[in-house]
Design brief:
about 600 residues; 10-stranded mixed beta sheet; 6-stranded parallel beta sheet; 26 helices; about 45% helix
């Protein structure tokens, strides 16, 4: 679809001119109607890219909906419902197309169009949205599908009947496949399964084996690997040593850690080997998928990195944003810091927030010795939509939020409590560096209180920071960690973050000045056996973290700009790197070639081949 094209210069139309690519794509995802996390960000960036728009005729986002939802809001923001028979809507005689499917499977279909917006790049695109309500599903038909799934792919649905998210996405597989085929006139269509949720529909496509159809698993993570990293005290230090050494011996995760099929997520993504391709968002995601089984290791796995925003600003713009952050820090802490550090993230264990404080422990002493100071803002919360702004102003006046906190809503809840305690402990010990934990969604005076400068916006926390932290224990890519790279920040991440490989490729060097990739998997003495790796627990990881965090602090201190010339150099280099990591680059150089490589079902070639 061509609607939504911006006036920006078009990229080269390589695919349509050179390859004759003409393709419809159905993206099956739980973020079909609204952005809730990384997948929504990917959809906004990828689907609005000119290279994608030039190559793809029609895009359909496929998801679920529930009875009782408002039809005006069901398809998300900037949408229009064209068909929903239970709401009396049929704008375009769609009932003739959808009624046979609704009656066969006893589902309700909502269909319409939605405008996606990628605000950082200033682009938009109109896509189709197809949702299914399955509370009255034809159980006989559904049971037959599950039985066939077991016969063809060995997935025993009875083992996962208590898993709501398994059942939810299994129920839409058949009607979603048939509706997409009918809607897209049985033309050449690719079914893209975003994470395990889309896999039942992708496997339905594999079952039907129709010419002109292909399917791919878009691995935004490998659920099996994430579970082992997050739920073991050795975290990434243990798992990636274990994986690396096991793979060197030709072993899979099951040969190393036992049967994994107790998880429905593992069962679904392991069967992605029957799709025509697997799209991995990071280099380690590719290796994690290969680790699942010998068959998965032989799958057609292609790297499809995530994109990053690239915006050129001058040094004066950066200084303006930083001055606002410094002013806010001064009002909160009573001193004007020389450096501003930030970490904008979801508050989940995988983000490794305790590692930030460990780096700051060493950095605090280095700053003190040099007569310098720093303030770090950690922006994270467990309250998704955020607290009411008037509540935060009340807490600000009452006891000095966000420097001081109290446990219990409207202030600290859940994991915020432990993070706040850790921040307090650090601030009591430190002298040159202080941390402010802002547990609020949003970054403006309206949302965060009267001490924040009135001119402040979220863009300032990205443009004005000297260093963005993001030392995750599991991070398939990590868009947020590298967003400030375009603005001259030093991004302090871990080597297990998928973004590292893309930054290095874009920079043309393994150690660009805007990136510090801390290796918390590095053990004393180098390579160890899988058995020794499996014994890494909290104590071993803790010792490694302290050594590696101290080294990272020394490296960060050396890279922090000491004058305008150094700040300008970081700004220029950061933009040059980010420019080569755009969604246009991702679409043209990674996504579309990966799609072309997908093996079509039904034998024979296609316009993609």
């Amino acid at each position: 679809m061509r609607a939504g094209r911006t006036d920006s210069p078009p990229v080269k139309r390589y695919y349509r001119k050179r390859e004759g690519l003409s393709m419809n794509i159905a993206h099956i995802t739980h973020e079909a109607t609204q952005k809730m996390g990384g997948i929504g960000t990917v959809l906004e960036g990828l689907l609005t890219a000119d290279a994608y728009q030039n190559a793809v005729d029609r895009t359909v986002l496929v998801g679920t909906w529930s009875l009782g939802s408002d039809p005006a809001e069901r398809l998300g923001a900037n949408s229009k419902t064209l068909y929903s028979v239970c709401d009396g809507i049929d704008d375009g005689a769609w009932r003739a197309l959808f009624k046979p499917i609704e009656e066969k499977y006893r589902v309700w279909i909502s269909y319409g169009k939605r405008r996606l917006e990628n605000k950082p790049d200033g682009k938009s695109a109109e896509v189709e949205t197809l949702l299914f309500e399955t509370s009255q599903l034809n159980e006989q038909q559904y049971d037959y599908f599950k039985a066939t799934l077991y016969q063809r792919f060995g997935i025993a649905s009875g083992d996962y009947e208590q898993a709501h998210d398994y059942d939810e996405w299994m129920r839409i597989a058949e009607p979603a496949y048939e509706a997409c085929r009918a809607l897209l006139d049985n033309g050449e269509t690719a079914f893209i399964a975003h994470e395990y949720m889309g896999m039942p529909t992708a496997l339905k496509a594999a079952m039907e084996n129709e010419r002109g159809v292909r399917a791919a698993f878009y691995a935004h993570e490998v659920s099996t690997a994430r579970a082992h990293v997050e739920h073991h005290p050795g975290h990434d230090t243990r798992f990636y040593n274990l994986m690396r050494q096991s793979q060197a011996q030709g072993k899979t995760i099951e040969q190393t850690l036992g049967n994994q099929w107790g998880s429905h997520r593992h069962a679904l993504i392991e069967r992605a080997q029957f799709c025509g391709g697997v799209f991995a968002v990071g280099d380690l995601v590719k290796e994690e998928y290969r680790f699942l089984s010998q068959e998965c290791a032989q799958a057609n796995i292609r790297l499809v990195y995530n994109g990053a925003p690239a915006k050129r600003i001058d040094l004066d713009e950066k200084k303006t944003s930083k001055e606002r952050l410094v002013q806010y820090a001064s009002r909160l802490l009573g001193f004007q810091p020389d450096y501003i550090f930030t970490h904008v993230t979801r508050l989940v264990p995988s983000k490794g927030l305790w590692r930030d404080l460990r780096v700051l422990e060493t950095l605090d002493e280095r700053l003190r010795q040099a007569g310098l100071t720093a303030a770090m803002f950690i922006l994270s919360t467990e309250i998704g939509p955020g607290r009411p702004g008037e509540e935060m102003r009340r807490l600000e006046k009452e006891y000095g939020w966000p420097v001081y906190h109290r446990e219990g809503y409207p202030d600290l809840v859940g994991g915020e409590i432990q993070l706040s305690r850790s921040v307090n402990a650090f601030n009591e010990r430190s002298s040159a560096a202080k941390v402010v934990f802002v547990n609020q969604f949003g970054w403006s005076q309206e949302r965060c209180g009267d001490r924040m400068p009135a001119e402040m916006s979220f863009l300032d926390i990205r443009q004005g920071t000297d260093a963005e932290f993001g030392q995750s224990i599991y991070e398939p890519f990590g868009i947020a960690q590298i967003e400030p790279i375009s603005f001259g920040a030093v991004c302090v991440v871990t080597n297990v973050c998928g973004c590292v490989g893309f930054v290095q490729k874009a920079a043309g060097e393994p150690n660009p000045p805007n990136l510090i990739a801390v290796d918390y998997t590095q053990v004393e003495g180098g390579d160890i056996s899988p058995e020794a790796a499996d014994q890494i627990g909290w104590a071993e990881r803790d010792a490694i973290e302290r050594r590696r965090a101290a080294a990272a602090a020394e490296e960060l201190f050396e890279r922090l700009p000491k004058n305008d010339a150094e700040a300008q150099a970081l700004l220029d280099r950061g933009y040059e790197i980010a420019r080569k990591m755009s969604w246009e680059t991702v679409a043209e150089e990674y996504f579309l070639p990966a799609l072309r490589s997908c093996r079509p079902f039904g034998g024979g070639g296609s316009s993609l081949s």
